[in-house]
Design goal:
It comes from Stenotrophomonas capsici. The protein is 49% helix and 11% strand. By secondary structure, the chain is α/β, with parallel strands linked by helices.
Length: 235
């Protein structure tokens, strides 16, 4: 399929890097930090208990699902309070979390493919997560980063896609959203009037019978190759 793509919006977690290893490292980093700075908190909330507390905070605060940083702070604040620790430890604990959160290991294909894509068309990061592209070291490859926390609503809300298109200055139908999640990324973007590209690394079945992805690849390299073959003019 060939159609004009003047800009790309790109998901981050599980599209450029797997999130599961990051999540596991965060759990251990936070536990080690608590062992050093608040042993009572570490004793009350070992890794499994802290994870359970975080999951309960997520369930109990659906109004904050667009703001994962606020949910993380809620979890840390509750753990510190319940264990009798000083609330002054909240921000240092959050910083320990956030440093670990931004230590990513790219999929083998992702970084080189991203460089090729960014040389071809403007790329904007559109994510429900709270990664920081500057900390990660790839900010220069993006026109901007639009997170659900900044926007006030999470994908697949059409508004976040429309806001990205507006900032890019490109019509919805000429923006290709690229991501791993069938609903939040691909179907959500297509319902908002964008084109949708599914990066389906794990060979999942597509279940949205009412629409089909405009493009589907098992690596980001596939998209870079498609752009090279189909883009009429370079950036």
């Amino acid at each position: 399929m060939n159609f004009p793509v003047l800009a790309i919006t790109l998901d981050l977690d599980d599209t450029l890097w797997p999130f599961a290893p990051i999540g596991a490292r965060i759990d251990q980093v936070l536990h080690d930090w608590m062992l050093e700075h608040s042993p009572a908190t570490a004793a009350m909330y070992p890794v499994a208990a802290m994870r359970e507390l975080r999951e309960r905070s997520f369930r109990d605060n659906p109004h904050l699902h667009y703001d994962l940083s606020a949910l993380r702070r809620l979890t840390l604040a509750e753990a510190l309070e319940n264990s009798g620790a000083s609330p002054a430890l909240l921000e240092p604990a959050y910083e320990a979390f956030y440093a670990a959160r931004n230590q990513v290991t790219f999929y083998p294909d992702a970084l080189e493919a991203l460089r090729r894509i960014a040389a071809r068309v403007p790329v904007a990061a559109v994510s429900n997560g709270n990664a920081d592209l500057q900390r990660i070291g790839i900010g220069e490859l993006f026109a901007f980063q639009l997170g659900s926390r900044e926007f006030g609503a999470a994908k697949p809300d059409p508004g976040i896609f429309h806001a990205a298109c507006q900032r890019l200055g490109v019509a919805h139908a000429q923006v290709l959203h690229v991501g791993d999640h069938a609903e939040m990324d691909v179907a959500g973007a297509m319902r908002a009037g964008l084109r949708g590209c599914w990066i389906n690394r794990e060979a999942h079945a597509w279940t949205h019978q009412e629409l089909q992805p405009d493009l589907q690849f098992d690596t980001l390299t596939g998209l870079a190759d498609w752009l090279d073959a189909n883009a009429s003019t370079p950036r």
